[in-house]
Amino acid sequence: MKLWILRHGEAQGHAAQDSLRELTDHGREQVLRSAAHLLGEPLTVLFASPYVRAQQTAGIVHEALALERPIVTVPWLTPETDPGEVISQLDALAEDNVLLVSHQPLVGALVGLLENGHLKTPRAMDTASLAVLEGEWPLAGLLTVKAVHHA
């Protein structure tokens, strides 16, 4: 399995609700730089948080890579989701080449859990950071971080 975990690009500081914050122009540029690392990769599915900034990030990546399958919006990629829940969802879906677009603190905690098997050492993930993980199965401690690209 190959798994890419992308934090959304830079977003506005304020909105009526956190879930409504939109990407800034700089955030859009960051996402395009991160998307360049995905060119030629065998992505089969793109899952994204329902929050506006994650949807915009996923849309930019989807368009830049000319992906055929539509973006799949899921409720289990919001900022406060338990990383174990994400792993359970990935296990149940049994997809091989997955891109997740989400938020901190989830993305850092998820990368740390998949790599180390615990939540004690989350990975630093700036806006539009892209982590690349590989392994046989999406279980805690069983994936290896191959790279982390910072936009």
Automatic annotation (TrEMBL):
<dbReference type="GO" id="GO:0101006">
    <property type="term" value="F:protein histidine phosphatase activity"/>
</dbReference>
<dbReference type="InterPro" id="IPR013078">
    <property type="entry name" value="His_Pase_superF_clade-1"/>
</dbReference>
<dbReference type="Pfam" id="PF00300">
    <property type="entry name" value="His_Phos_1"/>
</dbReference>
<dbReference type="GO" id="GO:0005737">
    <property type="term" value="C:cytoplasm"/>
</dbReference>
<dbReference type="InterPro" id="IPR029033">
    <property type="entry name" value="His_PPase_superfam"/>
</dbReference>
<dbReference type="InterPro" id="IPR004449">
    <property type="entry name" value="SixA"/>
</dbReference>
<protein>
    <submittedName>
        <fullName>Phosphohistidine phosphatase SixA</fullName>
    </submittedName>
</protein>
